[in-house]
């Protein structure tokens, strides 16, 4: 699972960010995460109606991917892809 919270540079580690701020991106969207996962051949499935457990009132959605490498590696590579899309 990749929740947008995991890679959002605007959030703290305590709020759910899983990677270092230097790798993270501000306000990632499900579309960007899905597009990056597709480029990494992770077979993404978007689930728009899901809410991150500690932010249950926000319907942020999540992207389900195949686990072909370590989670942090997937997150960092996805962020690098998203940065590439934005530039």
**Strand order across the largest sheet:** 1-2
Beta strand %: 5-15%
Q: Count of DSSP E strands?
A: 2
| CATH class wording | Alpha Beta
Q: State the helicity in percent bands.
A: 25-40%
Q: Could you tell me how far the N terminus lies from the C terminus, measured between alpha carbons in angstroms?
A: 26 Å
Description:
The protein has 87 residues and is mainly α. The chain has a single domain (4-86), classed as 2-Layer Sandwich (Phenylalanyl-tRNA Synthetase, Chain B, domain 1). The protein has helices at residues 30-39, 71-86, and strands at 45-47, 62-64. The protein has a two-stranded antiparallel sheet. The longest helix has 16 residues, at 71-86. It is globular and about 30 Å long.
In short:
30% of the residues lie in helices and 7% in strands.
Descriptive keywords:
87 residues; mainly alpha; Phenylalanyl-tRNA Synthetase, Chain B, domain 1; two-stranded antiparallel ribbon; 2 helices; 30% helix; globular
Topology record:
Layout: H1 30-39, E1 45-47, E2 62-64, H2 71-86
Antiparallel strand pairs: 1-2
Helix pairs in contact: 1-2
